[in-house]
Amino acid sequence: MSFIDQFAEQWQAYRKPGYYDKFDYAWTMTIDLDRCTGCEACVTACQAENNLPIVGEEEIAKGRTMHWIRIERYWEGEYPDIKLRFIPMLCQQCDAAPCETVCPVSATYHNQDGLNAQVYNRCIGTRACAVYCPYEVRYFNYQTHHWDTPLDQQLNPDVTVREKGVMEKCTFCIQRIRLAKDTAKDDGRRRVRDGEVQPACVQTCPTEALVFGDRQDPDSAVAKQLNDPRAYRVLEELNTAPSVVYLKKVEVDAGAR
Amino acid sequence: MPDNPRKLQFADVNDDVVRSLTQTGSAYYITLTVAITVTLVCFFFPWFYQLNYGIGAAGMNQPTVWGTYLASFIFWIGLSHSGTLLSCVLHITQSSWRKAMYRSAEAMTLFSLMVAGTMVMVHVGRPWFIHWTLPYPNQMGLWPNFRSPLMFDVMAITTYLTGSSIFIYMGTIPDFAAVRDRTTGWRHHMYVMLSLGWRGTDTEWHRLGWAYTFLAVLIIPLAVSVHSIVSWDFALSLVPALHQTIFAPYFVVGAIYSGTAGIVTVMFVLRKYMNFEHYITDLHFDNLGKLLIVLSLIWTYINALELFTAWYSGTSTEYEALKYKLFGYYAWLYWEMILFCAVAPLLMISKRFRTSFVPMLILSIVINIGMYTERFLIVGTSLSRQYLPDSWGVYVPSSVEISIMVGTLGMFSTLFLIFVKIFPSISIYEIKETMDQPGEAATSTPGTEGGAD
């Protein structure tokens, strides 16, 4: 096949109707802020599952954190009438992700599960995706991080260890999703059942504030939560179509207290 | 012309230009050594350290993932904008005052672009894979992302670099031939190759003229599009202070503005140290000064407009970004920029100021400091105040970044110093076009007639 034909064929694939909006699965996470206690168990679980480095005090002081999921804290009011609000923030796996359009080498792209995937091997580190991301959930490897022995023995073998100059972010634990899909396939080409796959943060959440599943399946726990009147998406006005849906905390207003 | 007691003859032009190429004083070698040393020590050593350590050697952090490297990139691209563009515009409008200065202005374009290209390498996390941004067929069937403004950038800059290289080289062929006939030894062999067997026949002149004008027309829209595309790297994002439609014209005007100031600096240096007093005169400074003041006013207008739209939008994010720019951590830089780029250039309203060389030199450097600040602020202030207040932060350049910033100046100077010894830095044949023909009555001296011929 000549080079031109090959190119034309690839181009055809891109032009396939529905290529960009018909996904095998539409993985979605809901975060119930009424249940969230801000315990940061999800942060730790993510750290362990995805081989996130401990960047150290110095780097944190420079503002180079490495937490694929973080608890954002907002203080309201002045002491003593002060109130803390918090919200877990992770990659929103946008369906119209600004980071995907900007990467010059397509290191970040939309996969057939509707996930915003990041290819570490392809990344050249322009960091443009982090600028374009309004949620600030992309983390850059400012250096190659090392794990002292014996900590290097506890690295997850299913997840790549990233080197310097590479962007990384929450993948919805794509290694678990892949495993679940493979198991489902070996099981006779069925679909992944609801609850069969959970990212580390969801699995760990003690209050079950985080729920994960396929929103294409109307019976899934996550699809049911989407109809909750409290459901909203962060920065929805930017039309990024996030796959992470938050359930608003119900406020007891001051008068009723 | 006060400092021109004797009228220039055709032979003088050849003599002066060949002298500038062959006779090299110790001052030149000292400057070159300094420039090369600065490049090595301030640019390459820190860069190698950074390649080894990672981008962490620079001061970038989580909200502000872009820093001075990208600011330097825009700055050098901007500086490249006036040379070839101005030369093309003035060629088409047949302004004769262009002729003494366009060669070095175009060289400035070329070298700024090269430095800008190097800045991209310094900026990215894994520069050893930079070739992945080029659309070349490969066994993996992988293409760059054609939707990406960064991709457009790669295309635009390589095109501009190619175009302006061809433009400067083609315009120099007759001069290479003239120098070829006057030099001996290795220089002669070099110019034999560079002049491509130019004999100066009518057909050759005709074809050169046609091709030169063709390229000039081609390069003008190209140059405008290049900096528009650079601006889209920012404007196509969702970042509050960057996501603005005004950005393309803003960048283009800013680029031409800093580029023209750069030309003034280069002209001063050439005039002073290459003894081109007869060719680069106060007329050139006067005309460049007029251009600068117009550009400064447009630039100021766009800046005011930017503030207005941010305020008028009424959204909290835009408003916060505006407030941060005017009164936040980097506010002193903002007001410095306004002073250097909007207020100080008003001095050029006076003709006496425009025609005095040293004040113009100082002002041109001041403008470029201001313009560098502008590029830093575009990156710095906007990225540190984005949508989620939790990830607000402050970015301060590290010593590695500052060193590399200085090193780029050394790199540019090195390239330019090598250029003036290989390329005739003043166009021999076009200077002659502005002079009286031998035997004709003297009516004008080179470069004294302003505007269109």
Word description of this protein:
The complex is a heterodimer of chains A (257) and B (453). With 257 residues, chain A is α+β, with helices and mostly antiparallel strands. Chain A has one domain: Alpha-Beta Plaits (2-Layer Sandwich), CATH 3.30.70. Chain A is 24% helix and 17% strand. Chain A contains 8 helices and 10 strands. Chain B has one domain: Formate dehydrogenase/DMSO reductase domain (Formate dehydrogenase/DMSO reductase fold, Up-down Bundle), CATH 1.20.1630.10. In chain B, 68% of the residues lie in helices and 0% in strands.
Observed structural traits:
heterodimer; A: 257 residues; alpha+beta; Alpha-Beta Plaits; 4-stranded mixed beta sheet; two-stranded antiparallel sheet; 24% helix; B: 453 residues; mainly alpha; Formate dehydrogenase/DMSO reductase fold; 15 helices; 68% helix; 0% strand; globular
Give the gist of this structure.
Chain A is of the alpha+beta class and 257 residues long.
Secondary structure layout plus pairing:
The complex is a heterodimer of chains A (257) and B (453).
Chain A: H1 3-15, E1 27-32, H2 41-49, H3 57-61, E2 69-76, E3 83-90, H4 98-102, E4 108-110, E5 116-118, H5 128-132, E6 139-140, E7 167-168, H6 174-186, H7 200-204, E8 210-214, H8 221-226, E9 231-232, E10 244-247
Parallel strand pairs in A: 1-10
Antiparallel strand pairs in A: 1-8, 2-3, 4-5, 6-7, 9-10
Chain B: H1 10-22, H2 26-53, H3 68-92, H4 102-123, H5 149-180, H6 185-194, H7 202-235, H8 247-273, H9 282-313, H10 316-327, H11 331-343, H12 351-354, H13 357-384, H14 399-422, H15 428-433
Helix pairs in contact in B: 2-14, 3-4, 3-7, 3-8, 3-13, 4-5, 4-8, 4-14, 5-6, 5-7, 7-8, 8-9, 8-13, 9-10, 10-11, 11-13
